Amino acid sequence: MPLILKKIAATTVDVPVQVPGEDKPSTIQATWKLHDWHSYRATVKAHQEGDKPDEDLLPDLEHVSGIKDEKGKDVPFNKELVEQLMQATYIRRPLIMSWFAAQEGRNQAAAKN
Q1: One digit per residue, pLDDT tens: the chain, 113 residues?
Q2: Which of 4, 27, 40, 47 has a CA between 20 and 30 Å from the CA of residue 53?
Q3: d(CA 2, CA 36)
Q4: CA-CA distance, 41 to 36, in Å (whole number)?
Q5: pLDDT value of residue 113
Q6: How far, CA to CA in Å, does 11 sit from each of 63, 69, 80?
C-alpha cells in the first residue's frame, strides 16, 4: 500500500497504566495534537533540559477515554480529570510518555507487528 502524504492534526494512542495492586495493566486512550518536526524537536529538547515541564505538554491533549468511575460509568474528559490523572503517579508518567509515542507514530507501527 503506498504512503499517502497528508496533514494529520491529531492521533489517538493507547496508554498502558499499571494500577498498583492489579495483575494486568489497564489501557486508556489519549488523543494528542501532532506537531511538525521543528516544533517537536524543540519541545523534546526543552523537556529533556528541564525547561519544559510535563504540564506544558497538556495543551496538546485533546481527549482521554477509557476511564470509568467506581460505579462503572464513563468519566467525562475535562480539565479536572486531567489534573486528577497528573496527580496519580502511576498514571502521570505513562500519559506524558504517550505524547512522545503519538508524535512519533509508535502505536501505529507497533499495531502492525
Answers
A1: 898 888 889 999 999 999 999 999 999 999 999 999 999 999 999 999 999 999 999 999 999 999 999 999 999 999 999 999 999 999 999 999 999 999 998 864 444 43
A2: 27
A3: 22
A4: 9
A5: 38
A6: 10, 25, 22
Could you tell me the three cell numbers for 75? 468519566
d(CA 18, CA 94): 9
Q: Helix axis angle, 79-87 relative to 89-104, nearest 10°?
A: 110
Distance CA 68, CA 88 (A): 15
Look at residue 3 in the predicted model and tell me its pLDDT: 87
| Per-residue pLDDT at 107 | 64
Give the contacts of 38 (CB within 8 A, at least 6 positions apart).
none
DSSP string of 30-52, one letter each residue: EEEE---HHHHHHHHHHHHTTSS
> Do the Cβ atoms of 107 and 14 come closer than 8 Å?
yes
Q: For residue 89, count other CB atoms closer than 10 A to its CB.
A: 8
Strand partners for 13: 30
